Amino acid sequence: MKPSRLITSRNLLVLAVITEFATGLALLFDPGLLGAWLLVIDTSELTYLFARCFGLALLALALACWPGQGNTGAVRGMLFYNAAIAFYLVYLGLFVSHSLLLWPAVAFHLLMSVLLGHSYHSKEQ
User: Fold this and answer.
1) Are 86 and 113 in contact (CB under 8 A)?
2) Among the listed residues 24, 28, 38, the one whose alpha carbon sits nearest the alpha carbon of residue 96
3) Which pairs from 38-44 meet CB under 8 Å and 24+ separation?
4) How far apart are alpha carbons 48 and 29 in whole angstroms?
């Protein structure tokens, strides 16, 4: 199988959905874990509340973007999310946190943005 056949809109969506669903579950059930590992910051009850809300939003995004017929809206949604979270994580890495684990997450979201953007624009043409 050609490598280019593996990078399809559907496969990208499945990867993005699984990743964001797992992250959403982690934020929902143990918000301090991601705060400690990914950002190396102290957490409080308030950050737990917001992290759990963010976890629920990621679960909803993952469920809404599961590939089906007419994936354009799902690709567009995941493209926006991946680009936005990549830039936000860069901001956190430069000005808030100095965790080494943050940069692989940045790289993953940037790569997903590029691949989803390519997939989205190639379908429009």
Assistant:
1) yes
2) 38
3) 38/97, 38/99, 38/101, 38/102, 38/105, 39/92, 39/96, 39/97, 39/99, 39/102, 40/97, 40/98, 40/99, 41/96, 41/97
4) 10
pLDDT per position as a tens digit, 39-80: 787 778 788 878 888 998 999 899 888 887 777 888 888 898
Place of tokens 């994936």: 71
Predicted confidence at residue 125, as pLDDT, reads 45
Q: What is the Cα–Cα distance from 125 to 119, expressed in whole angstroms? A: 10
- Reported as a pLDDT band with limits 50, 70 and 90, residue 7 is confident
pTM for this one?
0.73
Cβ-contact 45, 35 below 8 angstroms: no
